[in-house]
Design a protein that fits this description.
The structure holds two protein chains of two kinds. In chain A, 40% of the residues lie in helices and 19% in strands. Chain A is an alpha+beta fold. A seven-stranded mixed sheet of chain A has the order 1-5-6-4-7-3-2, sandwiched between helices. Chain A has helices at residues 79-86, 98-105, 130-142, 148-167, 174-182, 196-201, 204-214, 230-241, 290-303, 309-316, 349-365, 370-386, 391-405, 410-419, 423-433; strands at 9-10, 38-41, 47-52, 58-65, 109-114, 119-126, 220-226, 264-271, 277-284, 321-330, 335-343, 439-446. In chain A, strand 5 (109-114) and strand 6 form a beta hairpin. Chain B is an alpha+beta fold. Chain B folds into two domains: 40-237, Metalloenzyme, LuxS/M16 peptidase-like (Cytochrome Bc1 Complex, Chain A, domain 1); 264-469, Cytochrome Bc1 Complex, Chain A, domain 1 (2-Layer Sandwich), CATH 3.30.830. Chain B has helices at 2-14, 80-87, 97-106, 131-143, 149-166, 170-183, 196-201, 204-214, 230-237, 292-304, 309-317, 348-364, 369-385, 390-402, 413-418, 422-432, 446-453, and strands at residues 40-43, 49-54, 60-68, 110-115, 119-127, 220-226, 264-269, 275-283, 321-330, 335-344, 439-444, 458-462, 468-469. In chain B, strand 12 and strand 13 (468-469) form a beta hairpin. Classes of the chains: A alpha+beta, B alpha+beta. The interface between A and B is large, with 99 and 104 residues.
Chain lengths: 450, 471
Amino acid sequence: MIDLFKAKYRNRVSPSGNSFLKPSPGVAGGSRVNVPFDSFTLSNGLTVILRKESSIPVVAVDVAYHVGSKNELRGRTGLAHLFEHLMFEGSANVKKGEFDTYISLAGGYNNAYTTEDVTNYYEVLPSNQLPLALWLESDRMLKFAATVEALTTQREVVKEEKRWRVDNRPYGDATEKLQEMVFPVGQYNWPVIGSMADLDSARLNDLKDFFELHYRPDNAVLVISGDIDLRKTKKLASKYFEDIPAGSKPLSLVDFDDLPISSEKHLAVSGKVPSPAVFVAYKAPPEGSAEYYALSQLSKVLSDGNSSRLYKKLLYEKQTVSEFDASIDGMEESSVFIFSAFVSSGHSIEEVVEIFDSEIKKLQNSRVSDREFRKARNSSLSSYVGKLSTNSGVADALAHYHTFFGDPGMISSEVERELGVTRDSMLRTAVEILDKNKRAVLSYLPEINS
Amino acid sequence: MSKQKRKIATASKRSVANGLDRSKPPRPSTGGKINFPKYFEKRLPNGFKLFVVENHSLPIVTMGFVARGGSTHDGGLPGLASMTAELLTKGTRRRTATQIAEEIDFVGGSISTSATWDSCQVFVSVLKDNQSTGFDLLQDLVMDPVFPDEEIDRVKTQRLASIMQLKADSDYLADVRFSRSVFGDHPFGRPAGGTEDSVRTITRKDISDYHRSLFTPDNSFMVFAGDIGLAEAMRLISKSFRKWKGKTTAPTVLAPTPVEGGPRVFIVDKADAVQSAVRIGHFGVARRSPDFLKIFVMNTLLGGYFSSRINMNLREAHGYTYGGRSSFEARMLAGLFEVSADVRNEVTGETIDEVFVELKRIRETLPSRDELAMVKNYLTGLFPIQLETPQQVAGRVITVELYQLPKNYYRNYRNNIRRVTARDIRSVARKYIDPEKVIITLCGNAKEISSKLKKFGQIRIFDSNDKTMSS
């Protein structure tokens, strides 16, 4: 299905995994999730989180800067993600191209991604190469060193990325159109990748200002997870990051602008697509709110697996759709619950929306069954434990919980919040949030001659 | 003299009071050694094999059944293996499709089935506490599927819709045309997911015959990975796979032969395309080729990782693309060598020029010591990182068993990579890459790009239904 909203704009295409292996969902036992870690803050404001896991000599290093596309200004969109690309183009002591060379020579891999709210850099290496990762990350936190040449190249790379993800793909611009409907004003209005026009007008000075405002230790967190000695690693982190000055200006806070959706909004667009598609979006409180977790459980009942309600109604009883999804995308300032579907030939968008609406109505009128409720809870446990199966997964989770909530302990406790959802709160949330009169509906239709 | 002083002065400015010299990368600390993990292997009297990768770090058990033979055995029906795999979850003698879904979803587990070119796989992953439920489902799906007509109809409808979606996707169209051009009428030349014609034609008998011919104890094996040991795994299979009877009747499939002819250009027209999905290559090697590891190292250097020549050239030097890569996809019978990149229309010609530059360069000059060291360090360093989970280890075990590689293949993997020399790289490049034999396939805006491509060879243009268009 299309990557909506939480499309993480990764720096490079990930290599495909081993085709013989399906990832484990990480189903949990009866016991709680528990991931111990150490945390401290340097004098310059950098938070450092360490987690020891010594089963194999591997270490994951993750640096997350609390900046994303929501920190941009209209007319200057795409900067955060473009900046992420430039972070690989050299720093004070690392020449252009050397970052990747160093990591490869050390026998590791690296990547980065940008969202509306955060920019995250990570590498995974043999554990004896931890000093290298810290040297590289601290060097690029220390000083902005990108050149006009680097900007020129990466601008083109990002534009190709946009062409590949959006312009050259059926339904490729659906996300952007839906986003504009759900967030007509404010900082979530534009896509993370930005517009071609804004990318063309980005100047090196804009990026230098961006660095000064956001790329500073007091706006970042360093997470190290793997085969480490806690005491030695603490010393190493201080050694490399302590002398980086905190930002000279006060931290720039986003005065987030938003409007609730107060009616049912409709937009129909057409393109060269083989079948109609429909996207229905509801705005909800941000990730971490009670409503967010209730919606997470509601989405499981609606669309998790082939025993889900929408699977049965939309795909099994009649093949009204060929593919669908219903899920909650959580961001720092807001969440969006999205239902999306490709309509099968011989069926219509209206028919699909009618079936969807009748399922929502059922959720608003009666509590989910006890069995469905327990099923959703079992699925919650699986997902949370699944996140723990790799060091890079744990590092990413710790960085995320610190950045969004100031509480990395949520790596262990967040599952309890989801398990705290009740059948009553699911019903109440369905009534309050999945309101037919407060949503955006995007219809994507085949052009007549396509 | 004064210049030298200035240099020294600058260096000491960079050194900070705590003795940190940022001007040079730090040395690694003392490293931990890791060997390929031990695992259990047992062969049963009926020919069935069992592997167990025991690891108790998380209370998860993953169970994988693998039958030898996959889309290679589609015969004249592309998509047969893939559809058979999908239909395994759609009903057995004891359970309907709905019951299967309900049972696995309730415990928060997962079932996935798939066909690769060389295997059909059924994977179930569950909580330790739900181990018996998970296993019972797995063996039921593998041994007793019934392929109800109603479910076949549903799968067909969905697959036809999905093919329709794919035919609007540049990458899919380029890949399909490329395979067809290289392998012709052999099953490798057809989409493994099926075509609209084949999906409509496949019957219930085709599916059940396919299943019966390949899913036999002498033609398959199982891997358990995670929170389980050998004794427990043996107990689990004792009533089912241990007692399983049957002999495989899978037909022999002949290896494809390379399609003859000089450089050619095939364009799948997509009138609104703003990028060209470019695929350049030719016949590759089979997985068991004695040169495979050398080819793998050579390919990584050429286009197999971010710092590869092709990616550095197309993306970092020229900004033509978000990513360029090359691969030697090696199957049991034969393989495919392919360079791929999605580039904006205007630079389609230049991209192909640069690919030829790289294909010639790797055949003509030896890689530098640094370049070779980097790719070998990368591959040897990455290997243990990819053994973090028992499921990843299981994947390697499956590769060794499926392709009948030497038992110590992965134990010797890193040493074998270290032994590859610059001469080896050049020599396998010369033997297995031939710029004179390449086929160039693109999916893109034929009107905009075809004039620039005439210099590469004779051009043929197709529509998204693979019908030739008059150019």
